[in-house]
UniProtKB/TrEMBL annotation:
Fe(2+) binds at residues 199, 294. This is Coproporphyrin III ferrochelatase. Fe-coproporphyrin III binds at residues 67, 136. It is an enzyme of class 4 (lyase). Involved in coproporphyrin-dependent heme b biosynthesis. Catalyzes the insertion of ferrous iron into coproporphyrin III to form Fe-coproporphyrin III. HAMAP family: Ferrochelatase. Its EC number is 4.99.1.9. Pathway: Porphyrin-containing compound metabolism; protoheme biosynthesis. Belongs to the ferrochelatase family. It is found in: Cytoplasm. It holds the Pfam family Ferrochelatase. CDD domains: Ferrochelatase_C, Ferrochelatase_N. It catalyses: Fe-coproporphyrin III + 2 H(+) = coproporphyrin III + Fe(2+).
Length: 385
């Protein structure tokens, strides 16, 4: 058996020049006492109304103060290590977060102590946007600066490209939609609409998402989500032979009420669809890599209650999570980027119409909305090599 699985010669070196992979995520509370300090970490300097924070705290308390995100990252780490081992990719995998332990700076310090010098970074956010991309790059720069201040030799960090349109991300979503359709009562299945959801962000942040030439209404953020939604809807139609109406909608709005954020909200959309006579809806959270609190609360709790009130049958499809196809996609992204860094020609997988995303965020990509620009690592404007 093992002979059949032997990789192509040289696979063990396929990760060079990288000597480690860092899974970079958001972090979440692991018990009731963690909730308030976690929210303080998330919202420091971000101008979120106190009322909104109280409300979001309640979402966490409803689930015992435990965010599902850390367990899911642990499962993804296991899936990555298993996939790498099975494919003889000799690359240790580490995990660090923006807002909760294990904190990014601590993980990077440990990586330096282990002698890691050239680190590939996978963020658990698949799309362009300030929150999903540049903010992680700022976190990397801050952590590297902290290590530098401690007198440590700063490693090089390279962020892997956005994977929203990678088949290893999209195909599990398609399977999730097919499974959700099968869950719906048979008499409403054929007529079920698809509501693709993602995190709402301020309109201004959407308009300036992605490289400067992609700025404009909705920016790269909306364009990328629409492309994934269309790809998934097409694949579901090909599988089921049924053409279904679909729309990209939003969830988890935050911020001050007078600032415009992307709309419509999923709950308003369910109401509209019900008013138009839609028999059922599958909610497809394409904006999330795993079943975050936003999925458990905003979709499985709030939107599902709204649908029940309307008498509208709904199902929520699975996020990618630790799907082995996603783990394999991460390996492919590492090997692809490693080859590119070695100056070799690379084949880059991407479904849909946009093509593979860039390796290096150009200057002006996904700028922060407020305050002076902060240094960001792993981009064309990085202060680090
Ligand atoms: C685009 C996007 C993603 C998707 C990309 C990605 O996955 O990274 C994302 C992920 C996440 N957001 C999360 C949690 C929170 N986000 C908040 C606030 C905000 N998010 C924003 C955007 C995004 N957020 C924005 C524009 C704000 C307003 C404040 C600001 O401009 O920064 C707040 C404060 C309270 C509130 O305002 O809701 C919380 C608690 C968690 C953890 C969930 C868990 O525990 O399972 C995850 C994965
Ligand atoms: Fe968020």
């Amino acid at each position: 058996m093992s002979v059949l699985r032997d990789p192509a010669p040289g696979a063990a070196a396929a990760a060079a020049p990288y000597d480690a992979l860092l899974l970079l995520s958001f972090g979440g509370p692991e018990g009731p006492d963690d909730v308030v300090p976690f929210l303080e970490n998330v919202t420091r300097g971000r101008g979120i109304p106190k009322e909104r924070l109280k409300e979001v705290g309640q979402h966490y308390f409803l689930f015992g103060g435990v965010s599902p995100i850390n367990e899911q990252n642990r499962a993804l780490l296991d899936a990555l290590r298993k996939d790498f081992a099975e494919n003889s990719l000799d690359l240790p995998v580490y995990w660090g977060n923006r807002n909760w332990a294990p904190y990014l700076t601590d993980t990077l310090r440990e990586m330096v102590a282990d002698g890691r010098r050239r680190i590939a970074v996978l963020a658990t956010s698949a799309y362009a946007s300030y929150s999903g991309c540049r903010q992680y790059r700022e976190n990397l720069a801050e952590s590297l600066a902290a290590l530098e201040a401690e007198g440590l030799d700063v490693p090089r960090v390279d962020k892997l490209r956005h994977y929203f349109n990678h088949p290893g991300f999209v195909r599990p979503v398609v399977d999730g939609v097919l499974a959700s359709l099968a869950e719906l009562p048979e008499d409403v299945r054929a007529g079920a609409h698809l509501a693709f959801t993602t995190h709402s962000i301020p309109e201004a942040a959407a308009d300036t998402s992605g490289p400067v030439e992609e700025h404009g209404e909705g920016g790269a953020y909306v364009r990328e989500h629409l492309d994934v939604a269309r790809t998934v809807a097409d694949a579901v139609r090909a599988e089921t032979g049924v053409e279904r109406p679909w729309r990209l909608v939003y969830q988890s709005r935050s911020g001050a009420p007078h600032i415009p954020w992307l709309e419509p909200d999923i709950c308003d959309h369910l109401e509209t669809l019900h008013g138009e006579g839609a028999p059922a809806v599958v909610m497809v959270p394409i904006g999330f890599v795993s079943d975050h609190m936003e999925v458990l609360y905003d979709l499985d709790t709030e939107a599902t209650a709204k649908a029940a009130e309307l008498g509208l049958p709904v199902a929520r499809s699975a996020t990618v999570g630790a799907d082995p196809r996603f783990a394999a996609a991460v390996r492919e992204l590492v090997v692809e980027r490693a080859a590119a860094e070695r100056g070799l020609p690379v084949e880059r997988c991407a479904l849909g119409s946009l093509g593979p995303s860039h390796d290096l965020c150009p200057v002006g990509c996904c700028p922060a909305a407020r305050g002076a620009a902060r240094p960001a690592a792993a981009g064309a404007d990085s202060p680090y090599a």
